[in-house]
Structure formats: structure tokens, C-alpha cells
Design goal:
Strand order of the largest sheet: 12-11-15-10-16-17-9-18-19-20
CATH architecture of the largest domain: 3-Layer(aba) Sandwich
Structural class: alpha/beta
CATH superfamily of the largest domain: P-loop containing nucleotide triphosphate hydrolases
Helix content: 25-40%
CATH class of the largest domain: Alpha Beta
Number of strands: 20
Largest sheet: 10 strands, mixed
CATH topology of the largest domain: Rossmann fold
Distance between the termini: 71 Å
Number of helices: 14
Length: 569
């Protein structure tokens, strides 16, 4: 590659290298220099590092116009030098390389040494080096909770390919063979990208031979997900059977999800209809909990009766101190959300909360009821268990939020997160491992204000590793997400960043050079930071081997035998 120069300081942490004009070196190549050092063992010293800047200039020129004079014979020489940031010293003895020492690009085992990948007991592929020659690994112990957990991904929508890279990470984890029990590992993906994630089980017809070669280099086949299920919202009809609202898949390929009135009351899901951040949010929370307590009592009573999917409540309002005929109004079985909202109003009016708080509570409830009434419904003749999101049935579960109102999306996300966390905590064990993929974190876990989903996500970020619940969150702007949620992940990943966003303190793990690089990253490139490697590493990853749109799915091969039968007939 070249030699350590003597016109710039060489330190144990960084040095400069003079390159030949025809040397094929690019930024982020890993290199090594061997030098003599007064180590206790008296052996040589290896300094591994990564090229983070390459600079070219004329030596011997003074004025900018000398570049023209150089073509006319001005005696100048071209100098191309590379800056190397040291990543590892073997042995760990901090001594600078001597000017004139030979520097070379490393591959294979030495590349793994440069990035501490040789020290990873369990690892999984996170992509390829930008040269495409080396596989870059992540330490699985910092993802599954043994030493750390969680992933956070930032980048501009549509360019940073956050969702695409997230699904690649899940595919790599399930296929790498490093997980102790991959068949019993689960991933729950909340789909906010239209119907793009409803084709994970379909092969991508646009995959090229070069793409397949990259998958082979990573160590697994270029195939779609083979254990995946899709849950979609029902059509917005509140009567009759739940019909899946999806255009791209057949009705028998997806499952419409909903909650019964009794499960809504029993699980305390009312809070997820009050996720708007505002000055009165914390005041409303007390009233929400009071109403939820009464609804849970009604659900317990209905369980004892072993009746249908509803609960027994009165819809007659009775204010504080009232002693009218409504006090003895009979309870009725409530099976739909619109009737439940009237019963909730009666419960709220009977609490000790101020009338202003009760009115604000009811305004939000009635504002949400038309948007979620078909999600909390009377199942009719259907078995509600067939429409409950069962994330344990398959390795990958896609929960589509397409066409839901914002309050509906928040309700579904909050309810499913609570279900997963409660089921995990009830077992008292870390297994099975469960990855939860949430896009648009800034919507569900904003930096300021109070929200029940925000508290749920914060609890997973801080305590989830003990129960085997791993959060993979993504957002355009990490600066707008609750600080503790973006600070806890062991893996921090960025795609293309907005120029102003890149300067925020949340990206302090990036070097100044990589901050500039993040502003011009193209699709398919990410910068990954993990605890084992002392510097973030730019990587590339292959095109998805599964379809990401309806027009990408490969058509099934024609049945040749059937064709012969038709011709003969």
C-alpha cells in the first residue's frame, strides 16, 4: 500500500501513509503496519487500522495557478497520502509506527483481527466491506442480551433503506446458524410501508447472479423467508365477519386481526387510545387507570359467568352525588365498541375527577371511536382466537398497519407490545428470543411528553434483555426520540442522514469524517457501530432475496404435465 510518512506526526492512534499513484486503496480499507517497539517481550508490534481519509496534493507548488504551470513543466510532484485511524495493537503496547515502515491492506484473518472479529465467540453477518471482499460480522452476544441488546437505525425515508436493512438483519440472524435455537426465535414487524412487507415469503424475480454470489459469500442462500405469517386490519365494517383489508394477497393468505370487548377490558387497552402528547396527557392518565380498573372488574365478572365475548356494564350516567333512577340502571351485555364508549362515559362521570378532565377524556374517546370501532368488535360466529395475533406460530410475524388512522396504529402497536411483554414475563425465562421491529420510533416514543406506548418501549429498551425481548427501532431523526431509547442499543446504525440531523449529539459515535460520509450515502450502504469494534464501519448489503413489492414476486413455474394434458385433450 505504501509507507508511513515522516512529515506528519505518527502516533499509536493515527498515522499517514504515502500511496503510489496506481495503488488501489479506498476509504475504509483495513491496513496493518509492523514496527519494532520496546515491548517487554521484545517482539514486533502490529498496528491495525482503517483508512478514513485520502488526500492528494502537489508538492513544490505555491500558488493555485501552479496546477496549470505543472502541465508546462513546473517541477512539482504528486503526493497522495492516506490517513489511518488505529483500531487495534498486537500486543497492546502503545507505541507509534516508525516513518518509512511498510503498510499493507489486510484480508482474511488479518481483516478479522483489525476489527476484533476474531474475538467474537458468536457472530452473525451484518454485511460486506465496501470493497466487497470481506464479510463484516456483528457480535451476537451484544444483540441477544448476554452482554447487551437492541438496535437503532436512523436515516432519511426512501433513501436510507432502513426497513430493507432491518429485514436483512432478521434474515441473517435466522440463517447464520449462530443462534442457540433459531427455530424458536421470533421476529414481530410492524409494517407501516403500505403492503411492501407482505411478500417476505415470495422470491425476488429481479435477483441477479451477482446478488446470489453476495449471499453465498455471506454464508446463506438467496431465498425468501420460509416461516412467516401476515396479520392485516379488517375492513371497516363493524357488523358481520372480519374481512381482511388487503389488495395484494388472497384472503386465505392473511389473517384479519381484532380484539373483543372482553379482551379490551381484561387487558387494559383503553390507555392506547390516549397516546397524543399534550399538557393534559398526564392528568388524563389517572382517569384512564380508574376506568381501566372498572373495566377489568367487569371482564373478571364476565369470565365467571362464562358468557360470550362481551362484558356487563350499565350505560346510564350517574354523576357524583346523584341519587336518581339511573343509580339502579340494569347492566347489559356490551359486545361492540360504540356501546362500550357509552358505558365508559358513565364510569368516568362517576369518578372523583374534575368535570374538565372528564370532558377532555370523553372528547378524545369519542374522537377515536369511529377510527377503532372495527378493531374492537363483536366476533359473531367467528372464533376470536383465530383473529388474535399469535406471534409464536411462525418465526416472522408481520403486523400490517396499512390504512389505519394514527390512533388505530398506536392502539395496535401498544396492544401487541403489551401482549408480548406480558407473555414473556409470565414465563420468567429469556427464551424464546423475540425481536420487535418498530419503525417511526419518533411517533411512538417522542422525546417530550407522556405516552403509554413511550413508557412501554422505554421499559423494553431498559429491561427487555433480561426477558429476551430485543427492540430494533428505526426513525428518520434520532434527535426526536426519547434519549434513553436511542442511548441503550448496543448496535447503532445510520443510512443517509439529513445534513442538519447529522450534526446532532445523538450521532456523536460517528467520527467527523463519517458524519460527512453519512450525508452522501447511497442505498444499500450503512454505517454500523458496535461495542466490539472501536470505530464505526461502513458496509454494504445485498438486494433482498424476497420480494419487496407485488411486481417483484417471482411467478410459480408452469406445470408442464398439465400443459401436455391440455394439448392432448
Amino acid at each position: 500500500m505504501g509507507r508511513v510518512i515522516g512529515t506528519q506526526d505518527a502516533t499509536p492512534l493515527e498515522f499517514w501513509v504515502l500511496l503510489d499513484e496506481d495503488e488501489q486503496v479506498q476509504m475504509n480499507d483495513a491496513v496493518v503496519v509492523e514496527t519494532r517497539a520496546p515491548t517487554p517481550e521484545g517482539s514486533g508490534l502490529k498496528l491495525f487500522g482503517m483508512v478514513d481519509m485520502i488526500r492528494a496534493r502537489h508538492q513544490g507548488s505555491v500558488f493555485d495557478s501552479d496546477v496549470i504551470e505543472a502541465e508546462r513543466g513546473l517541477p512539482v510532484e504528486l503526493s497522495i497520502v492516506a490517513h489511518v485511524k488505529v483500531t487495534r495493537l498486537l500486543p497492546e503496547y502503545y507505541y507509534p509506527p516508525v516513518p518509512g515502515s511498510l503498510v499493507r491492506v489486510v484480508t482474511g484473518e488479518e481483516y478479522a483481527q483489525a476489527l476484533f472479529m476474531d474475538k467474537m465467540e458468536r457472530k452473525f453477518p451484518i454485511g460486506l466491506s465496501l470493497s466487497g471482499r470481506e464479510v463484516v460480522y456483528g457480535n451476537l452476544d451484544f444483540l441477544t442480551g448476554r452482554k447487551g441488546a437492541h438496535v437503532n437505525i436512523s436515516g432519511i425515508s426512501g433513501i436510507a433503506t432502513k426497513t430493507t436493512y432491518t429485514t436483512f438483519l432478521i434474515y441473517s440472524l435466522l440463517r447464520c446458524g449462530a443462534l442457540p435455537d433459531p427455530a424458536n426465535t421470533h421476529a414481530i414487524i410492524f409494517n407501516v410501508k403500505g403492503e411492501d412487507l407482505l411478500f417476505l415469503d415470495k422470491k425476488n424475480k429481479d435477483l441477479t447472479i451477482e446478488d446470489e454470489a453476495q449471499y453465498a459469500q455471506l454464508g446463506f442462500p438467496a431465498e425468501p423467508f420460509d416461516s412467516v405469517q401476515f396479520y392485516v386490519p379488517p375492513a371497516p365494517n363493524r357488523q358481520g365477519p372480519a374481512i381482511p383489508k388487503v389488495a395484494a394477497r388472497r384472503p386465505d393468505e392473511v389473517t384479519p386481526y381484532f380484539w373483543t370487548v372482553r379482551s379490551f377490558c381484561r387487558e387494559g387497552l383503553l390507555r392506547y387510545l390516549f397516546t397524543e402528547v399534550g399538557e393534559d396527557a398526564s392528568l388524563l392518565s389517572t382517569l384512564v387507570y380508574q376506568v381501566e380498573s372498572r373495566l377489568k372488574e367487569a371482564a373478571d365478572e364476565a369470565d365467571k359467568r362464562d358468557s360470550g365475548p362481551g362484558v356487563f356494564l350499565s350505560t346510564a350516567k350517574k354523576g357524583k352525588g346523584d341519587d336518581d333512577e339511573n343509580a339502579d340502571a340494569p347492566a347489559q351485555e356490551i359486545r361492540d365498541f360504540l356501546t362500550l364508549a357509552k358505558a365508559i362515559e358513565a364510569i368516568a362521570a362517576s369518578t372523583n375527577q374534575a368535570s374538565g378532565t372528564v370532558n377532555a377524556f370523553m372528547r378524545r374517546l369519542y374522537g377515536a371511536q369511529e377510527r377503532v370501532a372495527y378493531l374492537v368488535r363483536n366476533p359473531g360466529d367467528a372464533n376470536p382466537e383465530n383473529h388474535t395475533i399469535n406471534w409464536r406460530k411462525k418465526q416472522v410475524t408481520v403486523v400490517s398497519l396499512t390504512d389505519l388512522y394514527e390512533v388505530g396504529k398506536s392502539f395496535v402497536v401498544g396492544s401487541v407490545l403489551q401482549q408480548i411483554q406480558e407473555e414473556k414475563e409470565a414465563t420468567g425465562a429469556a427464551g424464546p428470543l423475540c425481536f420487535i421491529i418498530v419503525d417511526e420510533l419518533n411517533r411512538y416514543a417522542p422525546r417530550d411528553g407522556w405516552s403509554p406506548i413511550r413508557e412501554r418501549l422505554l421499559e423494553i429498551a431498559e429491561r427487555g434483555r433480561s426477558s429476551g425481548t430485543i427492540l430494533i427501532g428505526a426513525q428518520q431523526t434520532a434527535s426526536e426520540v426519547e434519549r434513553r431509547i436511542v442511548a441503550n442499543p448496543a448496535f447503532r446504525i445510520v443510512g443517509r442522514l439529513d445534513a442538519a440531523e447529522a450534526e446532532r449529539a445523538e450521532y456523536g459515535f460517528l467520527t467527523p469524517t463519517l458524519r460527512e460520509r453519512a450525508k452522501i450515502l447511497t442505498s444499500g450502504r450503512m454505517i454500523v457501530s458496535q461495542p466490539d469494534i472501536p470505530t464505526p464501519v461502513p458496509i454494504l448489503f445485498p438486494k433482498p432475496s424476497w420480494a419487496t413489492r407485488e411486481d417483484e414476486q417471482a411467478l410459480p413455474a408452469p406445470d408442464l404435465k398439465l400443459g401436455k394434458m391440455r394439448r392432448s385433450s
